Amino acid sequence: MPASPVPGEFRSGPLLLRDAALFTDLYELTMAAAFFREGRRETATFSLFARRLPDTRAFIVAAGLEDALEYVRSLRFTPDALAWLRSLGRFDAAFLDHLADLRFTGEVRAVAEGTVVFPDEPILEVTGPVIEAQLLETALLNICHLQSVLASKAARVTIAARGRAVAEFGLRRSHGSDAGLKAARCAWIAGCESTSDVLAGKTWGIPLSGTMAHSFVTAFSDELEAFRAYARAFPDTAVLLIDSYDTIEGARNAVTVARELATAGRRLTGVRLDSGDLLTLSREVRRILDQAGFPEIRILASGGLDEHDVERLLALDAPIDAFGIGTRLNVSADAPSLDLVYKLVRYGDRDVLKLSEGKETWVGSKAIYRLSGPDGRAAGDLLALADEPPPDAGEPLLETVMRGGELVRPHPALNQIRDRCAAQIGALPEGLRRLGGHDTYRVRPSEALRARQEKAVAGARAR
C-alpha cells in the first residue's frame, strides 16, 4: 500500500497539490453546509459515468483511477484551508468544525483502469455519508475526465497505426504541466511506445524517444555538418530531421552520415519527416535509403498528425515505420471533452434518479457484466443492480477498490494497466475499432434494474 497521504496534500505523479480539499466548486461546499444544517447524514451513492459519447467515439478507455483513489484518501481540510473558508463569511462555525474532522469513510467501486466502457456504465461509484460523498464530485470528475479523454484518443491513434510504433510528444502544447504528464501516462496505457516527456519517463518508467528540432539544424551553416555533429554526439541512436530545407537533399545528406557511421562500426537509427506530402516524400526517401544500402534506417513521420492521417497514409502503403503524434493527441483535438457526470443514484433507503429531458439517470448502485460472443470478442454489456444475482455468463467489471476509506489492495503496476487496455481493445468487434462510421455497442439494462427504474419514475412523478 502507498504511504498514508500527508493531511491536505494530494500527490499526482510528481506534482503536489496543497489544500486539495479546496480543489472543488463552491457549490459542493454550500450543499454540504446545507446538508449539515439540516442534519442530513444518510448514506448516499453517487455514480460517475458518461451520459453520451462524442460522435467520433465508439468507446471510452477508463483512466485516472489511481489518482482518483489517492485524492479520496487525501481528503482533509487543513487549519489554513478552514481559516480561509472562515474568512469568506459564508459558513457557520459548527460546519467548519465538522470539516476539521472530516475523512472519507465510505466505499468506492470501480472498473479497473484501462477498461473499455460505454455510455451509462459507471467508471466508479462512491458510497458513504452524503457530505463526504458529495464533496468528492468536482475533483473526481476532473481527474477521471482528463485521463479518460486522453487515453481514449491515444487508443484510436494506436489502432490506426496497425502495430507501428507511436511516440507521444505533445508536451509543449498540452494544457498545463499536469495535463502534459497525464498525456504521457495515458498514451502509454493505450499502446503508445514512448514519450518525449522526460519527467514522465522518470516518474513512471515510460521509454523516452526524441530526435532534434529544426533549430539544431539551422544553427549550423550547413545541414550536413549539423547531421554530423548530432551523429558524433549520439552515434548509435541518432534520428535526423531532414526537412529543414529540402527533404530529398536532406535524405541524401543522411545517407552520407550513415556511410560515415558505418565505417566506424556505428549505425544511423532513422530519419524524420515533419512537413510536406508525407506519402510522396516517404516513398522517395525510402528509395534513396534502400538504394544506398540502408534498408534498416527507419522513417518517422510527424507534423500535426492524428489517427485519420495515420490511417490514410498506411492505407496507401506509405513506407513509414513510426509516427510522432503531438498536439492533436495531447489536447484530443477532435473530441476534447466527454459528457462525464457524477449523479446521486441512491440516498438512504430510497432510489434516486433524474428525469430532466436528455439527462435521465438510472437508479441504484450498479454492476456491469461484459458478454462475449463465440469468437471471444465483446458482444454486449448487461447493466444491472449491484445487489441482484449475477447472470449465468459475463465478466463483472465493477469491483470494490476502497472500503472504510482505505484501499482494498495496492494499485496495479502501470504495465498491468497497459496490458489490460490492450486486451480490452483487442476484444472489441471490428465495427467498434473503426475511426469513422463505427457501430454502436449494445448496453442492456437487466429486468431488475428496469423494474426498479419504473418504480422510481412513478414515485418521482407522483411526488
Task: Provide a descriptive summary of the structure in words.
With 463 residues, the chain is α/β, with parallel strands linked by helices. 40% of the residues lie in helices and 19% in strands. The chain contains 17 helices and 21 strands. The protein has helices at residues 26-37, 65-74, 79-87, 93-100, 130-135, 137-161, 177-189, 198-204, 214-218, 223-233, 247-263, 278-291, 307-315, 327-330, 414-426, 430-433, 447-462, and strands at 9-12, 15-18, 43-50, 60-61, 107-111, 116-117, 124-129, 165-168, 194-195, 239-241, 270-273, 298-301, 322-325, 340-347, 350-351, 366-372, 378-385, 395-396, 398-403, 406-407, 443-445. The strands form 5 sheets. A 7-stranded antiparallel β-sheet has the order 15-14-3-7-5-19-20. Strand 14 (340-347) and strand 15 form a beta hairpin. Helix 6 (137-161) packs parallel to helix 13. It is elongated. The relative contact order is 0.15.
